[in-house]
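Write out the bound-state structure for S-adenosylmethionine.
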Amino acid sequence: MGFRMRAAISLFGLFILWQPVALLAETGPLFSSQERWDRRYSGEHYIYGVAPVTFLKEQIKKIPRGKALCLAAGEGRNAVYLAQQGFEVVAVDISPKGLEKGRKLARKRGVEIKTVVADLRKYDMGRAQYDLITDFYYYDPALFERIMTALKPGGFFILQNFSTDQPDTGHFGPRNPAYLVRPNELLNYFARYRIRYYEDTVIDLNKGMHRGRGAVIRLVVENSATE
Ligand SMILES: C[S@@+](CC[C@H](N)C(=O)[O-])C[C@H]1O[C@@H](n2cnc3c(N)ncnc32)[C@H](O)[C@@H]1O
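---
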């Protein structure tokens, strides 16, 4: 066997061996969640774009201005938009790199956002602090009780997340069912409160790396009891 052939076989072997390592690095325990997201956000460009989620833009018209908490705010596209709309914004994310880009975007748009680097699994949101809490594309039902406690009476929670239909619908978004919303799941979680909007649908997404068909659940909950 010639030198070139041996070299090609060795390179192919290295490539095959690298795949599980690369997969672990992306999804598994080789890097912490913070390291993974910092790596994703390390470039100059905004991976989810700089325009807010369309559903937020549509819903915000109906919501009184006040203090807003953006959960898993990433590179700040929604937080900065809310600041531009007159909200006093706190943006929380596990990635310092993402939030740094969020502050940069805010400066560029001439607004301010407060940023907090924190792991939401342990983050204390306080009690009756916010008029609005948002959660886009970070799904953890364990947060819901803390979210409703952190809202002022009459405050709003807005969420958009991929549903369990997404793996068969689009080529992006999580595949792990733990990060996908099941049909009617949110109606049950929030049954005690006024659900102002609920939609289980497929839409065309066109921002950043979310481009194409997206199966999403959209929700607006008001912190008012139904009885
Ligand atoms: C899919 S991105 C969505 C970003 C942003 N909401 C948006 O729509 O542009 C998910 C975000 O969740 C953040 N995240 C992941 N695990 C987290 C955790 N345990 N605590 C806080 N943020 C976390 C990531 O850093 C990332 O910014």
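---
The first helix runs from residue 3 to 27.
The beta strands are 67-71, 88-93, 114-117, 130-136, 151-162, 193-207, 210-225.
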